[in-house]
Amino acid sequence: QVQLVESGGGLVQPGSSLRLSCVASGPPDFTLDNLSIGWFRQAPGKEREGVSCMSASDGEVHYQDPVKGRFTISRDNAKNTVYLQMNSLKPEDTAVYYCAADSRAYSGEYYCSAMRYNMEYWGKGTPVTVSS
Fold first, then answer.
1. Nearest partner of 129 among 102, 97, 107, judged by Cα
2. Under 8 Å CB-to-CB from 128, ≥6 apart: which residues?
3. End-to-end CA distance of the chain
4. Residue 92's Cα: distance from chain center in Å?
5. Do residues 20 and 86 make contact, with C-beta atoms less than 8 angstroms apart?
6. CB atoms within 10 A of CB 21
7. pLDDT tens-digit series, residues 19-48
8. Which one-letter DSSP state was computed for residue 80?
9. Confidence band, pLDDT 50/70/90 cuts, at residue 90
């Protein structure tokens, strides 16, 4: 069983930056290399939405429109860790952020939106609050 643990959330002012981390673990032969990864978020009273996703094989990356140019997803397979660098944070970025992973094929531009509830493995989330 794959486990994902997020960290790095907190309370910040608008315009600030945060870096979220997600450490993956599993059976003795586990490796993050073969999993597509994603960051998703859910604000109070709203549906979960995709933030950014990355394929396993060629590092193809997609960002949802609200975060383009401000957020960057990355992965360090040697450390089994996924990151989300968030810059120029806005109050509307306030949400619980979830890391997720999936062994199935990455399907391109609409993957993050389509998989926002369907990824195989999920972390428990880390809260981000952007407020002055």
1. 97
2. 9, 10, 12, 18, 20, 41, 86, 89, 93, 94, 95, 96, 97
3. 40
4. 17
5. yes
6. 17
7. 999 999 999 888 888 899 999 999 999 999
8. T
9. very high
Q: Is the dihedral of CA 15, 11, 70, 90 positive or negative?
A: negative
CA distances from 40 to 85, 95, 108, 129, 132 (A): 13, 9, 16, 15, 24
Residue 48's identity, in one-letter code, is R
Q: What is the pLDDT of residues 66-88, one digit of tens each?
A: 999 999 999 998 999 999 999 99
Nearest to 113 by CA among 43, 22, 47: 47
pLDDT tens for 103-114 read 988 888 888 988
Q: Where are the alpha helices (DSSP H) in the chain?
A: 111-114
